[in-house]
């Protein structure tokens, strides 16, 4: 399948993803290997958080959301001499259906 665009950042960068859902059903963005606050988690589950913290869980069609992710040292390369470390992002609303539909993409966190 076709992957989503590569998100590339350097260690200590702040990544802002401006997600506009032009599809016919809700989607989210969830990142592995990066740090984020609850409002940018992009995963739906019963955690008793307030509605404001759930806006990122399911971005409705024709709506937008800004996800903010942090690439700290633990997100970056761990092997000596490695330039980058790879992670993924994906829609976590309907995990299997979304990933099998190609709603997944690479994240590269590189040394400065």
UniProtKB/TrEMBL annotation:
Q: Which residues form the Plastocyanin-like domain?
A: 2-110
- Listed InterPro entries: Cu-oxidase-like_N, Cupredoxin, Neuropilin_MCO_CoagFactor
Q: Which keywords accompany this UniProt record?
A: Disulfide bond
Example of a GO cellular component annotation carried by this entry: plasma membrane
Entry keyword annotation includes Transcription: no
GO function terms (MF aspect): copper ion binding; signaling receptor activity
Record-stated family: Belongs to the multicopper oxidase family.
Recorded protein name is FA5 factor
Q: Which organism is it from?
A: Galbula dea
